Hints:
The chain is an alpha/beta fold.
Amino acid sequence: xxxxxxxxxxxxxxxxxxxxxxxxxxxxxxxxxxxxxxxxxxxxxxxxxxxxxxxxxxxxxxxxxxxxxxxxxxxxxxxxxxxxxxxxxxxxxxxxxxxxxxxxxxxxxxxxxxxxxxxxxxxxxxxxxxxxxxxxxxxxxxxxxxxxxxxxxxxxxxxxxxxxxxxxxxxxxxxxxxxxxxxxxxxxxxxxxxxxxxxxxxxxxxxxxxxxxxxxxxxxxxxxxxxxxxxxxxxxxxxxxxxxxxxxxxxxxxxxxxxxx
Length: 261
Ligand SMILES: Nc1ncnc2c1ncn2[C@@H]1O[C@H](COP(=O)(O)OP(=O)(O)OP(=O)(O)O)[C@@H](O)[C@H]1O
Ligand SMILES: [Mg+2]
C-alpha cells in the first residue's frame, strides 16, 4: 500500500465539544492516519471513542481543535462523499434522481448526472428499479440508492459511518459482499466506521483500532487476504486469526461492544 499515492492524510487531529452543562468534552486526541489510493481502512473502537466525530471532521462537517486533514483529490474530482447509517433520500425524487443528486449539484449537468447515476444504480443492483420512489423500495434498497448516490460522485474519498447497522444480518452480509465488489470495481478509497470486527476485516485492507476517552489510535492491523472468493474468505483460518488480532487490540472493551451488530 505504501507505494500508492496518498489519498488522505489525517495528522494530529484533536476534537472536542463545548457544552453548557458538560463543559469541554475531549472526543479525539492527536489522531493521525494516512490512507492511500484504492485503499479501504476500517475504523473500529468502543462506543463513544470518537469514530463519528472523526469522520465528520474528515468530511469538513466538524471544526478541528488541532491538526490537519488533507484530501488529495484530482482536478475536478469531489474530495468526499459520505454514506451515513440512514439513507436520507428525497421522497419526491425517483431512485435515479436521488442517485443523480450529488453529481447534478456539482456539475449542473442533468444528463451527465443521470448517466452516472444509472451506472451506479446498476452497480448496486438496482438498474431496473431506477424509476421507483423511495417509498416503493425496501430499507436495504434505499440504502443501496444511498451508496449509489455517493459512488456516482466518484469522490477522492468515500466516508461510511456504519451504513449497514440498521439492517438484518442476512441483508447486511449481502450488502457487504456487494460493497466489497463495488469498492474494487470503482477503485475507491474509503474510510469505513463499524462496530463489527468481521465486517471490518472483510472489507478493509487495514483496520485502525481506537481507544476511548479520549479517542486515540491504538494500532493499525494489516489485512492480507484473498477476497476474490467472496464470503468463503470469512470461514478461512487466516480471516479468523486477523479477527482475533483486532479483538485483542480492542482488549479491555466489554464483549457486547466488540460484537454489537
Ligand atoms: N454534539 C455533541 N456534543 C457534545 N458531545 C458530543 C457530541 N457528539 C459527540 N459527543 C461526544 O464525543 C464523544 C465521541 O462521540 P462519537 O459520536 O464520535 O463516538 P462514536 O465512536 O461514533 O460512538 P458510536 O460507536 O456509539 O457511534 C462522546 O464522548 C460523545 O459524548
Ligand atoms: Mg458513531
